[in-house]
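step=encode ok
step=design start
structure_in=
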C-alpha cells in the first residue's frame, strides 16, 4: 500500500482538529485541570478521547497545512475547547466562593489549607465545598455529559467554520453572573444566620460594654455556622444540579452560536 501526501494530510486533519479542541478542554475542565493531575495523564486522556471520537465526526474541511487560515483554525479550536472547559470551571469556582464567604462569616477565614487542586492556599470550608461538588459532579454523571457536550460541539461548530464573534465572547462573559448567583444561593442561608448572630452581639455590646462580646461571639458564630451547614448541606446537590444543568445548556447554545 502506497501512502501519498494527500493521505497523510487527510489523516492529520482527521485527528488534528478534534485533538486540539479536546486537549484545550482537558486543560481547563474539571476535574482534569487540577494541578494534582499529571500532564501526561491529560495528554493520554486527550489522545484516547480523540481516537474514540474522530471516526464518529464529519470529515473536516481540507485546509492547506501551515497556511494562514490553517493557523487561525488552530487558534479557533483551542478557543472553543478552552471556553467549554471554562464554563464548567466557573460552576466549581462559584461553589468555592460560597464556602469562602461562609468561612469568613464563621470566623474561619484564617483557617487556610494547601489546596492540591489549585496549588495554593484556600479556606478550609471552601475546599470542603469544592470536594463535595466534585463528588456530586461525578455522581451525577457530569463527566459523561461533558464527553457528550464535546461530541455535540463538533456537529454544532465543526472545524473549518468561522471563528466566534464578539457577541459569542460577550455571552461567554455573562456566564460568570450565573456562577456568582449560584454561589449566593449556596451560601445565603448560612450568611443570613451568621449576620443575625453578629447583629445580636453588636446590640449586646452596645447595651453592656463590659461584656466581652469577642470571646463569646466567636464560639457562638462557629456553633451557629456548623448548625446551619448541617441543615443547608443537603440542599447542595439540588443547587449544584441546577447550576450544572444551566452550564451545560449554556455551553451547548454557545457552541451553536460560535460559528
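sequence_out=
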Amino acid at each position: 500500500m502506497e501512502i501519498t501526501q494527500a493521505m497523510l494530510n487527510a489523516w492529520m486533519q482527521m485527528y488534528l482538529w478534534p485533538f486540539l479542541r479536546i486537549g484545550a478542554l482537558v486543560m481547563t475542565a474539571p476535574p482534569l485541570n487540577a494541578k494534582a493531575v499529571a500532564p501526561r495523564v491529560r495528554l493520554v486522556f486527550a489522545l484516547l478521547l480523540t481516537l474514540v471520537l474522530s471516526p464518529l465526526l464529519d470529515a473536516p474541511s481540507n485546509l492547506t497545512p501551515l497556511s494562514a487560515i490553517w493557523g487561525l483554525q488552530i487558534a479557533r479550536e483551542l478557543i472553543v475547547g478552552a471556553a467549554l472547559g471554562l464554563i464548567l470551571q466557573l460552576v466549581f469556582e462559584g461553589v468555592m466562593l460560597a464556602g469562602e464567604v461562609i468561612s469568613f462569616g464563621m470566623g474561619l477565614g484564617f483557617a487556610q489549607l494547601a489546596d492540591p487542586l489549585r496549588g495554593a492556599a484556600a479556606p478550609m470550608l471552601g475546599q470542603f465545598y469544592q470536594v463535595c461538588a466534585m463528588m456530586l459532579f461525578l455522581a451525577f454523571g457530569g463527566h459523561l455529559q461533558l464527553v457528550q457536550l464535546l461530541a455535540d460541539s463538533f456537529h454544532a461548530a465543526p472545524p473549518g467554520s468561522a471563528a466566534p464573534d464578539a457577541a459569542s465572547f460577550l455571552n461567554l462573559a455573562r456566564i460568570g453572573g450565573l456562577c456568582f448567583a449560584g454561589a449566593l444561593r449556596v451560601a445565603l442561608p448560612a450568611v443570613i444566620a451568621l449576620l443575625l448572630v453578629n447583629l445580636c452581639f453588636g446590640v449586646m455590646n452596645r447595651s453592656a460594654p463590659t461584656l466581652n462580646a469577642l470571646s463569646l461571639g466567636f464560639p457562638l458564630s462557629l456553633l451557629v455556622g456548623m448548625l446551619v451547614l448541617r441543615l443547608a448541606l443537603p440542599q447542595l446537590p439540588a443547587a449544584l444540579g441546577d447550576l450544572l444543568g444551566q452550564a451545560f445548556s449554556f455551553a451547548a447554545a454557545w457552541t451553536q452560536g460560535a460559528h
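step=design ok
step=annotate ok -> Strands lie at 112-115, 120-123.
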